[in-house]
Amino acid sequence: MNCPFCRHEESRVIDSRPTDEGSSIRRRRECTNCGSRFSTAETAVLSIIKRSGATEPFSREKVINGVRKACQNRPVDDDDLALLAQRVEEALRATGQAEIEAQEVGMAILSPLRELDEVAYLRYASVYRNFSSLEDFEGEIALLRALPFEKNSEVQLSNKDSQVVSPQLLAPKTP
Ligand SMILES: [Zn+2]
Known about the structure:
Blueprint: E1 11-19, E2 24-31, E3 37-43, E4 47-49, E5 55-57, H1 60-68, H2 78-94, E6 99-101, H3 102-116, H4 118-128, H5 134-146
Parallel strand pairs: 4-6
Antiparallel strand pairs: 1-2, 2-3, 4-5
Helix pairs in contact: 1-2, 2-3, 3-4
Residues 3, 5-6, 8, 31, 33-34, 36 line the site of zinc ion (ZN).
């Protein structure tokens, strides 16, 4: 890839190490033109198997588009949605599978969406799980009340390496 500082096409790898328990590789690079250092992250392509049997690469944008409607008029902004999509991707990658059924993507959305906004969650779940009666809503709401979300019980998704994978480019650190 091009140097993010001068757009030069060549760089040399000065360090390479696995991150996220081996699910990605981070490479420290030095531009052969301007000498700036930057990092790249390499991950396996995550494929989604559609109902038709065709596969397509996982897309955070599709996750966001899938929940945007459920979040309408809710206190959810674009940053929240971007983070949600990131968490969905991390959850899917954590399964260690290279190919994932589209259905599982929907499942992976439920938990972070619930944490984000319970009304949006209910809207999404009602469509995704095909709620057909008031009882379905009542059952889900009863579950929500019975099992209050405990943020600390969730997998910790802190500002560690995985967060910066998507731009494929990390801010340069002083050497
Ligand atoms: Zn450069």
